[in-house]
């Protein structure tokens, strides 16, 4: 085993994210930003591909255009639609659209994106004006309703607008006669017309209208028609309320455009994702299993969970809980299209989770996800009662889903980041908003109270893991949402006020915790113990926010480092560093809230007296707890440059703790996160 000092440096921009992948091109000229790889799927020259791309601050300044060239210097037509910007005005997140060269199946072509000057403009309306698309919806009694998608979808505000692609959105409520007698069903369709004649229609049936009478399960048939030809049909016998179902239909005259492989190290530098170890690789069996799942008949069944854990109260080493899900991490680490298909499929299936709560009069009157400022006493639990304490119609209990904020996966952020598919942004925002209104109002607070986060608090008296994952959702949604999005002010306020509240508690928590200061108090359910792995969960969220410039989160992370690193550096004070990754650490309780003891010596003595200590055999570390600690220490090194965390990481990486070998991370890469410039390659 090697410590941090002995880890091999990860290759630079030219890394190949899987053993079979071609290395990404390196930026080599002034103004170069990042390299990408196009992997051919048989499309002709000029086939258009769109994807999401995060940028580091300053890489694409305001006033400069994005350009693209192949590795051989050949320029490629490119369009950028900037969703939001860094404080300095440079692009932060954007939809990038390329006109690709002809590429046979499996043929690769490197592309470099760079800042410069280039042509601007918008597709001639004649390109899209000749298309006619509609959605026909029929209720169980045979009454029909037709919704025009094209050209209607491109008449208003556009999500993409340039020489290569136009994308707009069309929305409408489905009349109750065509929805099985309910008035909670709406259609949201994103329609795209591209140069070369391709048309994409991403149509979603969102049975999500809340806080109004007439809601309930919808029943309908639907038929999608483009230029007089049927593209698809479906028959929904029952769609529970607060869910969405949709798929993307594509007509591509020039063939299937290439698959995009991103530079994940650059995405980490941009603060978009954690710094995953690209040196270890991923076990082929994981990718093969994903391929089998997406090929199975039930994958295409409407409302199939597609491998998502439906009972979210389930605990244990779940592959869907972390800074990202395991399929998303595999996609990031390998750039493999099999992992991409699986993760994208789960993002679609996330629409079936009943946490989509749409308020038609929210979002500053434009419509938005349910807002705790508009509904300050609302609680989505059935115990909330009738409005305004609860929902007009309760979340259905017969849809197969059990919601739990302490065990919620983020199924939407990475797919939106990498694809730019707007429906996934909807899912991300809906889940983030649910994280607030699902909290009991007595702990969430009331807007009339003084202090930050009152009425929006997701940390106070919550499980630490519940606070971690709720803040993860709020941070991701506020970071990814476009400037001008009607949901953004609320989501940004929720995230920033919670971090401000946590920071305001640090002096009092330090006084209470003494030598072990650095623990976020939270409800656990077992008296006088502290689960350190929940602190690791929270640290991963704090690190993600700090990477993106959230100052309060960075202060919180630095405060936490005293405990997170100190648990491995306090042997001289009587605390065995192996116990830093024990399942439980001896602590105390104040009511239901778990807190640490005040000294390492007292804690070490209590660990041995209560039979919580690992001893020499790691007998209390039987899960992924060492992996969790390693990713925390890596983040502390990466984000705040902590020398104590560096020393602790070096010790733990070489200590032989369970599930910390290279092959362990190959088989389960969920927390395969390392400090900048380090990798596990060579460790056995």
Automatic annotation (TrEMBL):
Record keywords, A-Z: Signal
Signal peptide limits: 1-16
Keyword match Signal: yes
Protein name: Uncharacterized protein
């Amino acid at each position: 085993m090697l410590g941090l000092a002995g880890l091999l440096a990860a290759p630079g921009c030219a890394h190949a994210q899987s053993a079979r992948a071609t290395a990404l091109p390196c930026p080599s000229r002034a103004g170069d930003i990042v390299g990408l790889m196009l992997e051919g799927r048989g499309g002709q020259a000029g086939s258009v591909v769109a994807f999401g791309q995060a940028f580091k601050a300053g890489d694409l300044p305001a006033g400069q255009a994005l350009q693209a060239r192949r590795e051989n210097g050949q320029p490629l037509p490119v369009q950028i639609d900037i969703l939001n910007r860094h404080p300095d005005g440079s692009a932060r997140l954007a939809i990038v659209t390329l006109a690709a060269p002809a590429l046979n199946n499996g043929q690769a072509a490197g592309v470099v994106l760079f800042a410069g000057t280039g042509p601007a403009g918008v597709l001639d309306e004649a390109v899209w004006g000749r298309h006619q698309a509609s959605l026909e919806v029929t209720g169980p009694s045979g009454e029909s309703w037709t919704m025009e998608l094209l050209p209607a979808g491109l008449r208003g505000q556009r999500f993409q607008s340039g020489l290569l692609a136009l994308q707009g959105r069309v929305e409408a409520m489905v009349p109750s006669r065509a929805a099985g007698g309910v008035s909670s069903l709406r259609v949201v369709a994103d329609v795209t017309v591209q140069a070369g004649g391709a048309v994409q229609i991403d149509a979603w049936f969102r049975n999500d209208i809340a806080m109004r009478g007439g809601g309930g399960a919808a029943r309908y048939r639907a038929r999608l028609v483009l230029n007089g030809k049927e593209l698809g049909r479906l028959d929904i016998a029952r769609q529970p309320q607060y869910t969405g179902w949709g798929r993307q239909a594509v007509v591509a005259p020039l063939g299937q455009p290439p698959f995009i492989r991103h530079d994940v190290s650059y995405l980490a530098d941009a603060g978009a994702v954690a710094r995953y170890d690209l040196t270890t690789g991923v076990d082929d069996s994981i990718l093969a299993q994903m391929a089998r799942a997406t090929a199975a008949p039930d994958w295409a069944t409407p409302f199939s969970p597609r491998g998502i854990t439906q009972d979210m109260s389930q605990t244990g080493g779940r592959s869907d809980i972390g800074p990202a899900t395991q399929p998303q991490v595999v996609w990031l680490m390998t750039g493999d299209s099999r992992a991409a298909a699986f993760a994208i499929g789960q993002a679609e299936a996330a629409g079936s989770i009943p946490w989509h709560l749409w308020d038609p009069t929210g979002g500053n009157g434009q419509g938005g996800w349910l807002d705790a400022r508009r509904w300050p006493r609302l609680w989505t639990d059935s115990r909330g009662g009738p409005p305004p304490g609860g929902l007009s119609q309760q979340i259905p209990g017969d849809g197969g889903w059990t919601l739990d904020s302490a065990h919620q996966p983020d199924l939407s952020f990475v797919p939106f980041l990498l694809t730019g598919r707007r429906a996934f942004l909807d899912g991300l925002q809906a889940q983030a908003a649910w994280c607030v209104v699902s909290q009991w109002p007595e702990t969430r607070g009331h807007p009339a109270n003084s202090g930050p986060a009152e009425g929006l608090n997701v940390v106070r008296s919550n499980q630490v893991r519940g606070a971690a994952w709720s803040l993860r959702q709020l941070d991701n949604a506020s970071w990814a949402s476009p400037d001008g999005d009607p949901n953004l002010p609320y989501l940004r306020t929720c995230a920033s006020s919670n971090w401000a509240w946590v920071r305001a508690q640090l002096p009092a928590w330090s006084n209470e915790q003494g030598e072990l200061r650095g623990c976020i108090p939270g409800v656990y359910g077992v008296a006088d113990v502290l689960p350190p792995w929940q602190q690791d969960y929270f640290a991963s969220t704090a690190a993600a926010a700090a990477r993106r410039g959230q100052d309060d989160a960075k202060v919180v992370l630095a405060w936490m480092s005293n405990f997170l690193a100190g648990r491995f550096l306090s042997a001289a004070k009587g605390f065995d560093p192996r116990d830093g990754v024990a399942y439980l650490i001896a602590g105390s309780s104040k009511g239901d809230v778990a807190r640490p003891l005040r000294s390492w010596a007292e804690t070490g003595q209590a660990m041995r007296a209560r039979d919580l200590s690992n001893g020499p055999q790691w007998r209390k570390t039987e899960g992924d707890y060492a992996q969790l600690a390693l990713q925390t220490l890596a983040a502390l090194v990466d984000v705040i440059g902590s020398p104590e965390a560096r020393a602790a990481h070096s010790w733990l990486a070489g200590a032989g703790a369970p599930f910390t070998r290279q092959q362990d991370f190959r088989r389960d890469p969920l927390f395969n996160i390392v400090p900048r410039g380090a990798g596990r390659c060579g460790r056995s």
